[in-house]
């Protein structure tokens, strides 16, 4: 089954078989897509484009040194890390463009939802770095939940812990980031 | 130190999460002891937690770019439905007109659904109605974002417009009728809107309503293949029909429901449903009463939970409003005892009459039966209207849709389904019998002729010809329908006879057609029927065609129109092709000249019409052989035309690679190329082209092995492959292909020596002789 072959391929790749990665992506791709599909159903207003995201993720991935990846959720977790990079880079580029062409109104802003102040993904990245310094596991969970869009159960599997633990960590991580972002807004 | 403190925070925070807000305070005081700093910190985090419900609740995603095809985004207009909507303008500023670009994130939908949508865009783009915002363009960005550009409408939501202009009830109803008209137009084009609501209906400053956003609409007949699409909750709960909310397939009845809700809101200026609840319908009921009897009945009938009890079509709703406005009695009856009894009796209405329940219900049950039959009559009339519009119009357009065999087959099946339902009720109704005969003839043609793009299904075709005959025979002499019924009868008889290899039957039909044609040679249909019969009888093919064409041409010249232009064009191509293949015209390509000219003009006017494109490519491909046999300059000309032909085939590559038109015609062009290269002495290129042709024609499930044009094509391709091998002195390979060609060639082989096929027979005979030599 796909699950097994992904695991197997991950193993092959981590043992130095560079072609294994090329074979992993099609297997995981569908998963990533359906993940996005679920999100779309949940919120019809979301402007999702996971396909582009996964493609970018793949290119970054292919250029990376293989690590010891055990299974599919683990792989997705790594995707989360890459997606974070992609998004932050994209937002930085946009900011630069905005600075250099002050007169053009920018239609698309990557504003974070649910915050009283206007903040984008680069600010989140800063806050996340602060969290990382304090509690790397929680930062990782944010990456998986927010950037890779993984479900709690998938995160739990990737981290080999219970879903309840993931939920608990996620709650505090979110509260912490929220605080960081709103405080910074005032200051 | 800091880490330790964080761990403390983590533990206490988690503890606090398990408690109610009141308990929390006490707990925090106890847990953090003297450390007020710690307590403040945790309290702040708890507050943040409470405020952060929305925060990070949706996964982050990459945003689309700001240039879509030839359009540049000006600013965002809104979000909703299936994505973001931007106001945009053309980059080249070629037109002043602004468009609304909708970025539909369907790239990650299942493959099948994406295909279905790709297929749908050209259909949606063909929708042109003054009250519908046009779909102008569509595409996919390099990053994979799918977008559609719609006519930008600067206007107000219909409900806001009505309120701000202080429209009277009458004005509101007239406005609403225009909306009905637009929706009815969509339904006739087999499109269900699925998301009708005030925010999708704008009114321009001139007071013209415009329907927006049928991006989620689906072609009715795609229902089964589109199962994935229904997974997307692409409708608005406030306006969606109960069946949509239940996740069932939305039909035209769903649009009737949504229109009913819109009408209600337009008249009462109150929402029909609040956020979610159906409980609010109690309020709705009270407001309906206030509207007054007839209007309330109309709205109620439109929004009945059971789709079968709503208006059967939007035009029925429209008509009832018209009656109301004209002061005539409306058809929608109030929810009287009738309705309640009927609901009670439900499905067992007939059985009820003899059951104990009937005794108790007494007169009600009898009355119900009477009512039912009246309803059935009305339903039948509407059904008939619908099938006439849908089946006939569709059957006529069938070959013009982009080549998707599955879709066409499905359309055809649903068409046959309608016909069968109708035929059970036809009785002695003469006009209906004629309609049925006409319908069965058309579906039978579509099933039997490869020109419909379908793989011919001759047995199914024959069954439908039989039905056409049966209904045409019901039309008696003396009725106004008789004349057309005769044409249908003769045509269907000739075709079944040909299928059954019943020579006397075919001859009889031919004779009848001849007599009728001679009686009045100015009638296009008679000439066509005669041409059909003569073609089937194998006699004087081109003569028959020429005669039919002359009639079409006369009518066309007298009154130029699209339909006849197309007919004429297809006819010219067919005639010229037949002449090149089977006759020996001195300069056959001259026949093609007008056909090619007309083909180019027609295609320019209808760039999305695949059938037109294929005909043009075929005309270009078929004229090449006759050019080649002319003077040396003809070779260069032929090469140019063949290249153009290949380019057209590439451009109009069908969605479905097994598309029969595409395979047959493009293989034919390969034959022309092979011939050309052979004449230039390029044996290798000649071989490549022939093998490419064979590859295109490679058998696939449902290959019409017995279809004469298929066999002819295969035979030709094998001869060309053989000749190229022969020319390159690879005799054993050549012989393999000669034998294959011989196997495919039907008999008798009576093409005149000077014709293209005559030439092929020559090569074949010669080749076979060489191969038989020891």
3D architecture notes:
- The complex is a heterodimer of chains A (187) and B (774).
- Chain A has 187 residues and is an all-alpha fold.
- Helices cover 73% and strands 0% of the residues of chain A.
- Chain A has eight helices and no strands.
- Chain A has helices at residues 2-14, 19-42, 50-62, 72-100, 121-134, 136-147, 152-159, 163-186.
- In chain A, helix 2 (19-42) packs antiparallel against helix 3.
- Chain A starts with a helix and ends with a helix.
- Chain B has 774 residues and is an alpha+beta fold.
- In chain B, 62% of the residues lie in helices and 7% in strands.
- Chain B is built from 31 helices and eleven strands.
- The longest helix of chain B is centred in the middle third of the chain and has 35 residues, at 363-397.
- Chain B is extended.
- In chain B, 44% of the residues are buried.
- Mean pLDDT of chain B is 73; it is low at 105-110, 215-233, 275-281, 335-380 and 386-404.
- The interface between A and B is large, with 53 and 51 residues.
